[in-house]
Amino acid sequence: MSEYQNDRLLRALHRKPVDRVPVWMMRQAGRYLPEYRAVRRRADFMTMLSTPELAAQVTLQPVDRLGVDAAIVFSDILVVPRAMGMELRIDSGQGPRLLEPIRAPEELRRLRSVIIERDLGYVLEAVRQATVALARRVPLIGFAGAPWTLMAYMVEGEGSKSFAVARRFLHAYPEAARQLLDRLAAVVGEFLLAQAEAGAAVVQVFESWAGLLGPEDYRRWALPALERVLEILRGRVPVIVFAKDGGHVLEPLAELQPHGLSLDWTIDPTGARERLGHRVVLQGNLDPAVLYADPAYIQERTWRMVRAFGVQGYIANLGHGILPDTPPEHAQAFVEAVHGFPVSEFAPVSP
Amino acid sequence: MSEYQNDRLLRALHRKPVDRVPVWMMRQAGRYLPEYRAVRRRADFMTMLSTPELAAQVTLQPVDRLGVDAAIVFSDILVVPRAMGMELRIDSGQGPRLLEPIRAPEELRRLRSVIIERDLGYVLEAVRQATVALARRVPLIGFAGAPWTLMAYMVEGEGSKSFAVARRFLHAYPEAARQLLDRLAAVVGEFLLAQAEAGAAVVQVFESWAGLLGPEDYRRWALPALERVLEILRGRVPVIVFAKDGGHVLEPLAELQPHGLSLDWTIDPTGARERLGHRVVLQGNLDPAVLYADPAYIQERTWRMVRAFGVQGYIANLGHGILPDTPPEHAQAFVEAVHGFPVSEFAPVSP
Question: Shortest Cα distance from A186 to chain B (angstroms)?
Answer without folding.
Answer: 27
